[in-house]
């Protein structure tokens, strides 16, 4: 008698896969294209080169996602993961972009080296699993959700609250006049109400695609109100080819390589948190071997990024929230999402159509999804022994405090060495480091498997 197929490995009907995969793409698209836009503009590339960077990024997103979800030769965790460019790399790459002797080709050289480094060190990072009992895992996942809420709130507000401008030769921040406008806030609220309404009253598949239908409804409303525009869609070409080393052969410089390898360590530690969150949400335990495969896929994705003219890749946490909201656990959904990303990279007109969706539309859905990530962390923490082990309270309290520092005070560490900023600008990483150290200090190191983490979450769910 054959064993039942786990929901993670279930292959859904093709129409459902297509719709659910598109939903994942819409959720991550804004974050996926943001980094090439930032770096392209920092390098003062012409518009056609910036457009190519975006297409290359989408193409490499698809490749990295397929490597992670399908898996091959010891690579890929085979969970519903969407891969995208990590924001942890933006600061270091902007510094490299400002240096004429490094430039874009130097950035690509450091990305390729970091990818190879990630593939090599993945087995060593995965051995850290005993350092992540439920009190640590739940705290990290809680901070992941809280960190993402800033993204969702800014989407709902219509962008970022402050813009950087150069006035009289000085770089200053000025208030964004388009931020927080009532019309945009109303659209975000409308999308959120549609999503929540479909979750409550929708049945079966309709509830599963609540986020997608909410975004579509918001896009229609935005079009009617004149906020969603299609000029870029009309101007975009139908087809383009993404070739390796489009801008030339990469160059390699020791300091940028070391910096990007540090970023890679940050990315991998954050990925451990993402994988453990997905393990809880999907109910599929991951052991050290599976973690190694998942972390190695981060390295492979980053290596592919450097080859195909783009940047370091990681698991996108906003899509973890979507899995929690929809309850659809099949990794084949994100496989289809990866194929859609490949297609968008090769079809600039379709990519432009997705890009045309205003951020305020995504904001209403983002608040629901990202809150679900934080709720997952809170659910794990309800299974932690706080009654007889008061030390666990201090682990959570202090770790959350450190994790909030980059969110509430971005300049908190400005006087520390610049080389440390990639480590200090990630609230998730700060929370992880502090939670692990405090847990070791108070509770020692115990053999903790992911099965125990999932069991703790299930126990909490029963309450």
Automatic annotation (TrEMBL):
Membrane topology: Multi-pass membrane protein
Matches recorded under InterPro entries: NCS2 (IPR006043), UacT-like (IPR017588), Xan_ur_permease (IPR006042)
Coiled-coil ranges from the UniProt annotation: none
GO cellular component: plasma membrane
Domain of life of the native organism: Bacteria
Keywords of this entry: Cell membrane, Membrane, Transmembrane, Transmembrane helix, Transport
Membrane-traversing stretches: 17-39, 51-77, 102-124, 131-153, 182-199, 206-230, 250-278, 332-354, 360-381, 393-412, 424-442
A molecular-function term among this protein's GO annotations: xanthine transmembrane transporter activity
Location of this chain's protein in the cell: Cell membrane
NCBIfam families the UniProt entry points to: ncs2, NCS2_1, pbuX
Family assignment from sequence similarity: Belongs to the nucleobase:cation symporter-2 (NCS2) (TC 2.A.40) family.
Protein name according to UniProt: Uracil-xanthine permease
Species the sequence originates in: Xanthobacter autotrophicus (strain ATCC BAA-1158 / Py2)
